[in-house]
Design brief:
With 1059 residues, the protein is mainly beta. It has seven helices and 67 strands. Strands 1-2-3-4-5-6 form a six-stranded antiparallel sheet, with no helix packed on it.
């Protein structure tokens, strides 16, 4: 068996897993205990819990445990789910000091410490005493070698606990006589008793022998759960052997003739010891050999009680266990705050005197109620108090469940019998019974639950207010009341009880079976013609479908709103055209309206009021000049055409977008060139300017940035081409692969590349010219803002490891996916965060992983090369790729359609080189002589350079600057070499140890690592290149240089001109 918690110190924190009904105990609260400290002083404190988990605490509920270093009992704190000792000695520290030190009250170990006992005979049968007739209970007193005998006064008092029959006396015998309606007589005899003045069996060992081992405070204690079991069973076996001869042969101790003693209770001298030690009240079984017998009957199931915690409630609780009843409180501390039966049942709470168990428990486990009569028709019913032997409960079926039903009973404290006098309240209790479970110990879910105000599956509510009565103005429970008659899973249970009466000798209540109750509209509401409205109702019984009808003339005529719709309590309908204040709704079954219900009072239907509501742009957007964006709006009422205007001055002046256009809810708008941070859009009814709306907040119109083409040429270096001047700028020595992105948030893209000879992936920060090594060599790299923080991040795929991105702010690495052959990034879904695109050949092609949801979508078959950019100016990046034998295509991210841009190329990139808010295609066409650009504005081609080894597009110049940052800052080439690059850089950092392949690499892994159409994955709506059913639209001028066209920019080859 495994130990958990504090080992030898809090050894008992681990309990044993056993048959759920074999090891059971009452839950004790605040039992006084006295514990000796190492210095000889005695600490007076309290113990609470049950056999599975119990603990020490003080009167203020600060938890106490033993410090292994000093042996002293100290106050506990909690770290990582476990209790740990503090330096505050229990009983010597004021509560104010603990509070100031941050010590918390009511600390418990986390649930994984609260495992239950493991029994060696797990499959052994559970033996219970007979529920009716006579039980001769045996009581055996035990003391240890270092203890004096029980006092005569104590023994006499215990005798009264068990056997007193005086009127009003609280004893176990009187209790079971009352709760069983005189069907069970429990008598007890006490042992040993053959020697006058000797009241107990004295064991050969001291009390410490039966407590946990501690090297400092208890070296003689048991050191394992096996040792505990062996010692406990030996103790009880020896006690049985000592008294067995005293039990009269004529005493019937096997009332059900099963060959086993019906019930035996051992009373052990002393106090309980907390932290789930042996010395705590419990019920168990003497299942180990050699077996113990009394008059030929096997001693098996037993109750184990401690001298100072003994009371009638505990004895009755344990005896009902012996009769087969389970606990109704939760063993798991995570759910201990949920009290399904509370103090209304002996098997959850022990009152003084003990209260009755509920009628259902009496019926199922006591067999003292022969049957619970079921209410099957609507009517008024009367029930007697639970103390009455007849007419004391009813059962009502749930119309929506085959495993759950309801039970009602009347609990009466005044004149309700000796053992109901301690009840906190009176009235009609309503139970939910779930026949799929036994007891509540492992719940929720629970077998027995009592409805109470504010109670839900997750909230305990107010169980002390559970009873219904007219005296308390709580007279109804259904699916719409508080509490609602919910089932175990929280769904409506279909109960309908109303008109609960005043409590007296009896109590009355009404039950509706197969009935409807309209709850909305129920009088005073206003519906708008043409709009949605929801009809709600409550239902009892088994009606499967209903009709919903409307009258607008006090019932003279009825219109069907919904025909034969499921009887689920709610239906959303479209309000018909009408104008009336005399409207009612009816919910009915079938043509004969049996059963049915109508709104209690009239409601109104009015014509719709015309309104317009702008939904986009609605504040915070940033739209680029020249891009194509969609203005959207909603409306109510009758709105024909609309007028659309915009303002760049925050609404002080307006310019028309369109004077009149059909009211479709959207309009495609080419964003004007005026740059402003204070823009608004207004949509109005073209025929009634008073019906108008403006976006809720300001949006921005920004100038489209001019990007630059970058390439790396073997033997020459990495260059970018200034799109403004056509000049070339050398950035670095030749790389095998390049990408660019604004990693430092300075507003200018930084060069990222692979330099294998220099050890992997490096970044050159454009503003400073400094270099940093980020990781080992990857199979492919890209850059994008992968977490929406405004900075681009390095994205790469490493063979055998996966696809990662490096957070440019924190340096953290995040694993996005399994290894791909190629990756890129772009905001495909327009949510402001770049999504991962890549090629996974074994998963069938090109996939996108959406950043926010983590969902995958397969976009096409495997391509030669991929990129991402906004090709149509709609604010979303699009997949751009080249397929051998087919051409270069882009996939419109808004509608999934495909557009062919050019003949197939060796490599592709895309970016806006002419500031028209639409990306231009850049690619390598070796047969046509190198790198070409196809401008989006007019489809013209321009040759930019000879064939490069790799290419990309980025913003390499400061905003508005006609020249590069290198020229502005007069940055020299790094020391140590004639060419810029990581090999010659004199200002550089090496951060690669934290990246893939590095010794300190420790990435965070996102979910959904493998591209898949299962789960969150979804197939692209339209097939891509190379797939069956592929459809596309051709642009003009598909071959570079094959058709005329004037490029808007000059071209020069980097081998000819450089700066």
């Amino acid at each position: 068996m495994s130990k958990k918690g504090w080992g030898a110190i809090c050894f008992g924190l681990s309990a044993f897993l056993m048959l759920a009904t074999a090891l059971e105990a009452a839950f004790l609260r605040g039992v006084a205990v006295h514990v000796k400290q190492p210095d000889g002083t005695v600490l007076s404190c309290l113990a609470s819990g049950d056999e599975f988990y119990n603990w020490l605490h003080d009167k203020d509920d600060y938890t106490i445990l033993r410090d292994p270093a000093t042996g002293f009992l100290v106050y506990a704190d909690k770290v990582d789910g476990r209790l740990v000792p503090t330096g505050f000695v229990a009983g010597r520290t004021e509560a104010q000091t603990l509070e100031q030190a941050g010590i918390r009250k009511k600390l418990r170990d986390d649930p994984d410490v609260r495992t239950m006992r493991v029994a060696a005979a797990e499959d052994a049968p559970v033996v219970n005493a007979p529920q009716t007739g006579t039980i001769n209970n045996l009581v055996v007193y035990i003391r240890f070698a270092d203890q004096e005998d029980f006092t005569e006064a104590f023994v006499d008092g215990v005798g009264d606990f068990f056997n007193s029959v005086e009127t009003g006396a609280s004893s176990m015998k009187s209790y079971f006589a009352e709760v069983s309606y005189s069907q069970l007589a429990v008598g007890s005899t006490f042992y040993p008793g053959s020697v006058p003045g000797a009241y107990s069996y004295q064991d050969a060992y001291a009390r410490a022998y039966y407590m946990p081992y501690d090297a400092t405070t208890n070296p003689d204690g048991y050191a394992s759960e096996d040792a505990r079991r062996v010692r406990e069973h030996a103790l009880l076996r020896n006690a049985v052997g000592a008294i067995a001869a005293e039990v009269p042969a004529g005493l019937n101790i096997d009332g059900d003739s099963d060959g086993q003693v019906d019930n035996i209770c051992f009373i052990v001298k002393g106090e309980p010891t907390a932290w789930s030690t042996l010395l705590w009240p419990h019920k168990w079984a003497l299942y180990t050999t050699p077996y113990a017998y009394i008059n030929g009957k096997l001693v098996y199931t037993y109750n184990f009680q401690l001298e100072t915690s003994l009371n009638v409630s505990v004895l009755c609780h344990e005896m009902f266990h012996s009769l087969g009843a389970p606990d109704l409180y939760h063993y798991n501390a995570d759910y201990r705050y949920l009290q399904p039966a509370w103090a209304w049942d002996l098997m959850e709470w022990n009152l003084d005197p003990p209260q009755h168990m509920g009628a259902y428990m009496k019926w199922k486990y006591g067999h003292w109620i022969p049957s619970i009569p079921e209410i099957t028709s609507s009517g008024t019913y009367t029930v007697h108090p639970l103390t009455s032997a007849t007419n004391n409960c009813y059962k009502i079926a749930s119309p929506v469940s085959s495993t759950e039903y309801f039970v009602v009973e009347y609990r009466k404290a005044t004149d309700g019998g000796t053992f109901e006098s301690s009840l906190y309240n009176e009235g009609l209790l309503v139970y939910r019974i779930n026949t799929a479970y036994t007891g509540n110990a492992n719940g929720p879910p629970d077998e027995v639950y009592i409805y109470r105000p504010d109670g839900t599956p997750a909230e305990d509510g107010a169980p002390w207010y559970a009873p219904f009565s007219a005296d308390q103005a709580r007279t109804a429970i259904n699916d719409g009341t508080n509490p609602a008659s919910f089932l175990t899973d929280g769904s409506p249970g279909g109960l309908s009880i109303s008109n609960v009466g005043y409590y007296g000798d009896t109590i009355t209540f009404d039950v509706s079976i197969n009935a409807f109750t309209v709850t909305s509209p129920n009088g005073g509401e206003t519906w708008v013609s043409g709009g949605p409205a929801t009809v709600t109702w409550l239902s009892t019984g088994g009606v499967g479908a209903v009709d919903i009808l409307l009258t607008t003339d006090w019932g003279a005529h009825w219109t069907v709103l919904a025909d034969n719709t499921p009887n689920d309590g709610s239906e959303t309908i479209t309000v018909p055209a009408a104008s009336s204040s005399s409207c009612f709704v009816a919910v009915a079954e079938g043509n004969f309206w049996v059963p049915y219900d109508v709104s209690d009072a009239s409601f109104s239907i009015v014509p719709p009021t015309a309104t317009v509501t702008v939904t986009s742009p609605n504040g915070g957007e940033r739209w680029l000049s020249g891009s194509s964006r969609t203005v959207t709006w909603t409306w109510t009422g009758t709105v024909g055409n609309v007028a659309i205007d915009y303002s760049t001055t925050g609404g002080t002046a307006w310019l028309p977008v369109v004077g009149s256009t059909p009211n479709t809810g959207s309009f495609a708008w080419t964003v004007p060139a005026t740059v402003s941070e204070t823009c608004l859009v207004r949509v109005s009814d073209a025929a009634n300017a008073s019906v108008t709306d403006t976006g809720n907040g300001l949006f921005a119109i920004a100038a489209a940035p001019i990007l630059d083409f970058l390439g790396t040429w073997d033997g020459q270096g990495v260059y970018y081409r200034d799109s403004g001047t056509g000049g070339w700028v050398k950035l670095a020595s030749p790389a095998t692969m390049i990408a660019c992105g604004d990693l430092d948030g300075e507003g200018i893209d930084d060069l990222i590349g692979l330099w294998p000879a220099q050890g992997g992936i490096w970044v050159r920060y454009s503003m400073t010219g400094n270099w940093a090594r980020l990781s080992s060599t990857a199979a492919h790299i890209a850059a994008g803002d992968m977490n929406g923080d405004g900075r681009d991040d390095l994205v790469g795929t490493w063979d055998g490891q996966g696809v990662y991105y490096r957070n440019s702010i924190s340096g953290e690495w995040v694993r996005l996916a399994s290894p791909a052959t190629m990756v890129t990034a772009g905001d495909i879904d327009g949510d402001g965060t770049d999504d991962l695109l890549g090629i996974w050949p074994t998963q069938g092609g090109v996939w996108v992983k959406y950043a926010v949801s983590g969902a995958w979508a397969r976009l096409s078959s495997t391509a030669r090369d991929i990129a991402a950019a906004d090709m149509d100016g709609d604010g979303r990046d699009d997949l751009v790729a080249t397929w051998d034998g087919q051409g270069v295509f882009y996939r419109d991210s808004s509608d999934g359609s495909w557009v062919r841009l050019a003949s197939e190329s060796g490599q592709v990139a895309a970016g806006d080189l002419e500031a028209d808010a639409k990306a231009d295609l850049i690619g390598i066409w070796p047969a046509q002589g190198g790198v070409w650009v196809k401008y989006s504005s007019n489809g013209a081609w321009a040759r930019l350079s000879s064939t490069a080894a790799d290419l990309c597009v980025g913003a390499m110049r400061a905003a508005g600057s006609p020249v590069s940052i290198e020229v502005e800052r007069e940055l020299r080439l790094p020391r140590g070499g004639a060419a810029a690059g990581p090999d010659g850089a004199h200002v550089k950092r090496d951060l690669s140890d934290q990246g893939p392949g590095g010794g300190s690499f420790s990435p965070r892994t996102e979910g959904h690592q493998i591209p898949s159409a299962a789960g969150d994955g979804r197939r692209a709506a339209k097939p891509g290149p190379g797939e069956r059913g592929f459809r596309w639209k051709d642009q003009k001028r598909l071959v570079p240089g094959g058709e005329s066209g004037t490029p808007p920019k000059g071209t020069r080859n980097p081998s000819l001109t450089s700066r």
